[in-house]
Amino acid sequence: MAKNNISQLNNAYTREHTAKKQRAPKSRAHAVHMKRIRNLLILMVVILGLGGFSVVRTQMTLGETNHAVTKAKANLDKLKANKAALKVQVDQLHNDDYTAKLIREKYLYSKPGEVIFNLPDKANKIPNLNVSQ
């Protein structure tokens, strides 16, 4: 085996050149890695931002839909109550006695020989002055 007879000079220029050569690949590699990390972080922030925006928009839409459903249910309950009242009224209108009573009351008709008296309502009632306060 032959010995290597080549030796390196140990002066300022060779030390600087060797240090620069060792530093250059590390700094370039480091710069490339940092650029990749920065790009990945930017991509991640964009994806998370879009996802967060989508979630917020979906929550707002869900809230509006729930509010509309609540209003619709309340309206449905009112309509069901109104329908039940109208059904009772229709059933009463099929009764001849009730119809005759309603017509006499509303249009002030009377049966032959019947006398009609108009009494004041509770709101128009005359206060009793004899009661001590």
TrEMBL record:
Keywords on record: Coiled coil, Membrane, Transmembrane, Transmembrane helix
TM region positions: 37-56
Coiled-coil boundaries: 62-96
Any one of the GO BP annotations: cell division
Region feature (Disordered): 1-28
InterPro entries linked to this entry: DivIC (IPR039076), FtsL/DivIC (IPR007060)
The organism's place on the tree of life at top rank: Bacteria
The keyword DNA damage is annotated on this UniProt entry: no
Stretches with biased composition (Polar residues): 1-13
Protein name in UniProt: Septation inhibitor protein
Lineage of the organism: Bacteria, Bacillati, Bacillota, Bacilli, Lactobacillales
